């Protein structure tokens, strides 16, 4: 159906699945393809990844890498006299078709901004992934990611990237999300298990301040406390990390109200 081609790599706007992905019967057919067509407001089409590869230039110039049209909706600021005023965050509304269907007005700007930041700061990539897991309450994934960080791949080609240590990652503040730490993220997402995990690993809160069930699980899994094992060397105590608005985890609990205020009343933050 789609005959347009990607303005970056000139291929058709499909994504070819490798034969062993999701195919229980690999010899049965030609490689499967799924749509991958991102149309910009100017009418130029790109593969998702091809556009992301140009994220640094697009976020810097806000123009199409192919035809140089100005991309944010609303067009360029109409009155030149106000050009020194703070600009609102732009949005770039695209029409994206992939295997999940059609998203008729997907704002691609936040994704481009994130990609551009991560290309310039590759060591933040695992930290961003860790925050996503915290928001989803994927505690097993969080532990695996920390364990992987503690034994960096010797054959990694990212030689100039200094990876974060597990202790640094626990207290890392996300510049793309109001300088929140993973604990801020887990609290705001209401992910209780992730909250307890982060406090166990990243704080000096006393063992007796944790619920018995949490202690049992943490000991059962052999999870270290701050300063032990893979967390040797310590790091900032996650309880006292403040976000852009100056909020510690305790402040977030008080903002959220019950049941989170129980953590404050239980003396965890003192
Ligand atoms: Zn392409
Ligand atoms: Zn264009």
Summarize the model shown.
The protein is α+β, with helices and mostly antiparallel strands and 270 residues long. It is built from 11 helices and 6 strands.
Explain the overall architecture.
The protein is an alpha+beta fold and 270 residues long. The chain folds into two domains: 88 residues, Herpes Virus-1, CATH 3.30.40; 144 residues, no CATH class. It contains eleven helices and six strands. A four-stranded antiparallel β-sheet has the order 4-3-5-6. Strands 1-2 form a two-stranded antiparallel sheet. Strand 3 and strand 4 form a beta hairpin. Helix 2 crosses helix 3, helix 4 packs parallel to helix 7 and helix 7 runs antiparallel to helix 8. The chain starts with 13 loop residues before the first strand and ends in a 5-residue tail after the last helix. Bound molecules: zinc ion (2 copies). One zinc ion binds next to loops.
Biggest sheet record: 4 strands, antiparallel
Low-pLDDT windows of residues: 78-84
In sequence order, what are the helices and strands, one letter per element? Answer: EEEEHHEEHHHHHHHHH
Bound molecules: zinc ion
Strand content: 5-15%
Essential attributes:
270 residues, alpha+beta, Herpes Virus-1, 2 domains, four-stranded antiparallel sheet, elongated, binds zinc ion
SSE layout and pairing:
Elements: E1 14-16, E2 33-35, E3 37-39, E4 45-46, H1 48-52, H2 55-61, E5 93-98, E6 101-107, H3 109-120, H4 124-136, H5 139-150, H6 166-170, H7 182-188, H8 192-202, H9 212-220, H10 249-256, H11 261-265
Antiparallel strand pairs: 1-2, 3-4, 3-5, 5-6
Helix pairs in contact: 2-3, 4-5, 4-7, 7-8, 7-10
The protein binds zinc ion (2 copies).
